[in-house]
Specification:
The chain is of the alpha/beta class and 429 residues long. It folds into two domains: 245 residues, 4-Layer Sandwich (Purple Acid Phosphatase, chain A, domain 2); 166 residues, no CATH class. The protein has 14 helices and 15 strands. It is elongated and about 85 Å long. It starts with a strand and ends in a 13-residue tail after the last helix.
Length: 429
């Protein structure tokens, strides 16, 4: 009989909402409960596939959580696995290491935390008699600036060796360095499969041996967009080791860019949004899509889109809901004024002056940054962290606000000028 297991990591159970755009309470509830649903889906997959084990390469929790509700939910799902005869192997990641709940939690029988001196466990045996040995090293503290690879035992002879490691590898954008190591070093260690965690994007780093970062099974905001999954691994004494990607996210975030260049009627513009949304919806498996829509291109409707943002959002939300379980996180307008692009009127001339002599100046950038910093100081801490969590993010927010402010001024001027006065919308709305 083959040995089969599911490999996952970075569930971050019950992590707090990060997006200020989730003002819709129903959408907020959906995202808030998504990590729990992902774990339930993983357990369902394990049971349906009759696997031998679930391995979790760190970060079941999300930082210094103290909620016993989270812990009790986790234990109930783990117990479903052990009652089905499925073993569970865990290591602590950097987030788990600072969770008080992790330290105090009593795990069900059949759940093995690979930590301290308990770093290896025989998980099964193949038909040819070889043992399947799972090795893992947990984070003892939240920081792990040095490689943990030297802490692993050498591969057991005449066995299939699987390693669990929470690591940033050689580094990844958006991720701090944790237990860094090179793929070549993992290959050289001699294990047959490395079950990694920490980086939230799925990557198969190497084959023979397989080195797999499964990504997180459920995205939590637009920066964790796209399909999310786990890895189903089969070890067969005759056919060797094979992997399959299995989708797990009940809701996925996606960016949807819609080119509305040349659209001169409201109905035409909304039709393009509808077509783009239908195309994306047809290509995704998740039950729910959470979309950040960005409109691009030169259009005479640019000023009206900015003036009537609330109406635009309502109409796009209506389109999304008519096409299934789709949610709009936000609508961004990155359109240029078609007339301004042609330079054919006074507003176009003003736009050129604004762009050349105001928006790009150091003085304007400094004033925008000061205004954003004043705003940040006036906000509660948790709101500040969600709005911008680094100095670079604050600067980016200031630059975006400055550009959008200039566009809004031009939109207002266009709306009140002779050729763009608040005329009745054509084509609906």
């Amino acid at each position: 009989m083959p040995f089969r297991f599911v490999h996952t990591a970075d569930l971050h159970l019950d992590s707090p909402l990060k997006s200020l755009a989730l003002r819709n309470p129903d959408l907020a509830d959906l995202v808030r409960g998504a990590t729990r649903e992902a774990l339930t889906r993983i357990v369902d997959l394990c049971v349906a596939e009759r696997v031998d084990a679930l391995v979790v390469a760190g970060d079941l929790y999300d930082g210094a959580q103290t909620s016993m509700s989270t812990a009790l939910f986790l234990v109930s799902e783990l117990r479903r696995l052990t009652e089905a005869g499925i073993a569970v192997f865990l290591i602590r990641g950097n987030h788990d290491a600072i969770s008080k709940v992790t330290r105090e939690l009593t795990l069900p029988d059949g759940v093995h935390l690979l930590a301290g001196r308990k770093r290896s466990h025989v998980a099964g045996r193949l038909a040819d008699g070889r043992e399947v040995v799972i090795h893992g090293v947990s984070f003892a503290e939240a920081e792990a600036p040095q490689s943990l690879l030297p802490s692993f035992a050498p591969p057991q002879a005449d066995a299939v060796n699987i390693g669990l490691l929470h690591t940033s590898l050689a580094g990844s954008p958006g991720h701090d360095a944790y237990a860094p190591c090179a793929v070549a070093d993992l290959v050289a260690h001699g294990f047959d499969y490395w079950a990694l965690g920490h980086i939230h994007k799925r990557t198969v780093w190497h084959e023979t041996p397989h080195i797999v970062m499964p990504g997180m099974p459920q995205g939590r905001d637009i920066n964790e967009a796209g399909e999310r999954s786990v890895t189903l691994v089969t070890i067969d004494e005759k056919q060797g080791l094979s992997i399959e990607e299995r989708a797990t996210a009940g809701a996925i975030f996606e960016r949807l860019a819609v080119d509305v260049g040349g659209a001169d009627e409201w109905r035409d513009l909304l039709g393009r949004v509808d077509a783009a949304l239908r195309s994306l919806r047809d290509s995704r498996r998740a039950a729910h899509l959470i979309l950040r829509v960005t409109l691009t291109g030169p259009t005479p409707l640019a000023w009206r889109l900015r003036r009537d943002r609330d109406l635009l959002l309502a109409e796009i939300e209506s389109i999304a809901q008519s096409r299934g379980a789709n949610w709009i996180e936000s609508v961004d307008i990155d359109c240029t004024d078609a007339q301004a692009a042609d330079g054919t009127d006074p507003v176009a001339e003003l736009a050129a002056i604004l762009d050349r002599d105001v928006l790009g100046t150091h003085a304007a950038e400094a004033e925008a940054l000061a205004a954003i910093e004043d705003l940040m100081r006036a906000l509660p801490h948790e709101v500040r962290a969600a709005l911008a969590d680094s100095e670079e993010a604050v600067k980016a927010l200031a630059a975006t606000s400055l550009a959008e402010g200039g566009a809004d001024v031009l939109a207002h001027l266009r709306a009140t000028s002779g050729d763009g006065s608040p005329a009745t919308r054509t084509g609906g709305a």
